[in-house]
TrEMBL record:
Subcellular location: Membrane
Keywords: GTP-binding, Hydrolase, Membrane, Nucleotide-binding, Transmembrane, Transmembrane helix
GO CC annotation: membrane
Main location class: membrane
Residue span relative to the full protein: 202 to 492 of 492
Parts of the chain that traverse the membrane: 161-186, 223-244
A molecular-function term among this protein's GO annotations: GTPase activity
GO biological process terms, semicolon-separated: mitochondrion organization
Organism: Gasterosteus aculeatus aculeatus
Entry keyword annotation includes Hydrolase: yes
Protein name stated in the entry: Si:dkey-98f17.5
Length: 291
């Protein structure tokens, strides 16, 4: 039969995911074909600690001498492969009892059941412990993300303030500079008539300061000052644009609400459910021990 996938790789992958891998040798066919042993050897390399060997249908192997012969043949075949030649090799005999055909062969199927039960208990406890660790990790990640978002918002407020200040100065200073020369052409009475006494007085004070500073500059250095002043204003506008692009991406309100809902769900629902499951598991273990 041709399968649309690699059967050997699928079996190997399943063995890696499983907690236990049982290998049953049938004394009738002995299951010693090359393909089977290749898969078993590959499983032994990747998950040898989970690999357990059993002689199934042991009651059909004849008397004790015949069973020993079959087991010796299986062990001999396994020892030829380096991946399966291990110290402390065990192969218990198991079979399903038949009341109509009693057998004197030792049936170790109860040991198989105990092994499965022990592994299940360990897996349950490990899963519950891992669940708590995963919950703590998720909550910690959400908390870190929220703290980072708050830090990004504070950073964005800071860079927006810097951008606003630089942009305002880059626009106000040249406007005030040009306006000072325009206002200087009007008399105080004309300004009072145009703007009113209060605004005219304020404008006259500011423009008067600019003109007072301008008069301090020697005439041969005024052109250089205008160039430097223009470059400074351009630098302020450039810094404003630079700070405006330095903001960090922050979460939206919907994302913040979703994060908070996830955290609350884990704390109130998942962890509570985990606690009840762990308590139920301990009660079951105690009941089995008492029994």
């Amino acid at each position: 039969m041709v399968y649309p996938f690699d059967v050997n790789s699928a079996i190997t992958w399943l063995g890696e995911q499983a907690d236990l891998v049982f290998v049953f040798f049938d004394p009738m066919g002995q299951a010693l074909c090359k393909r089977t042993l290749n898969i078993v050897e590959k499983l032994s390399e990747k998950c040898g600690d989970k690999l357990l060997f059993y002689l199934s249908k042991a009651d059909a192997a004849g008397n004790e001498t015949d069973r020993q012969r079959v087991m010796m043949q299986i062990v001999q075949e396994l020892c030829r492969r380096p991946g399966l030649n291990k110290c402390g090799f065990e192969m218990p005999t198991i079979y399903i009892p038949n009341p109509q055909r009693p057998s004197r062969c030792v049936n170790q199927i109860d040991g198989v059941c105990q092994t499965i039960e022990k592994t299940i208990n360990q897996a349950v406890q490990k899963t519950l412990d891992q669940l708590e660790k995963d919950c703590d990790l998720i909550c910690s990640t959400i908390s870190s993300r929220q703290e980072q978002d708050r830090a990004d918002e504070a950073h964005n407020r800071s860079v927006r303030l810097h951008s606003l200040v630089c942009g305002a100065l880059g626009i106000v200073l040249p406007v005030l500079f040009v306006l000072s020369f325009i206002v200087n052409t009007f008399s105080k009475d004309q300004l009072d008539q145009l703007l009113g006494e209060g605004p005219a007085r304020t404008l006259f004070v500011f423009t008067g300061i600019v003109m007072y500073l301008w008069d301090w500059i020697p005439e041969d250095g005024q052109v250089v000052f205008v160039i430097i002043f223009g470059a400074f204003c351009y630098l302020l506008l450039f810094l404003s644009k630079y700070f405006a692009g330095r903001g960090n991406k922050t979460m939206t309100k919907k994302e913040k609400r979703t994060m908070a809902e996830y955290s609350d769900y884990i704390q109130d629902i998942v962890k509570t459910k985990k606690g009840s499951l762990y308590e139920s598991y301990l009660q079951q273990c105690a009941a089995e021990y008492d029994f």
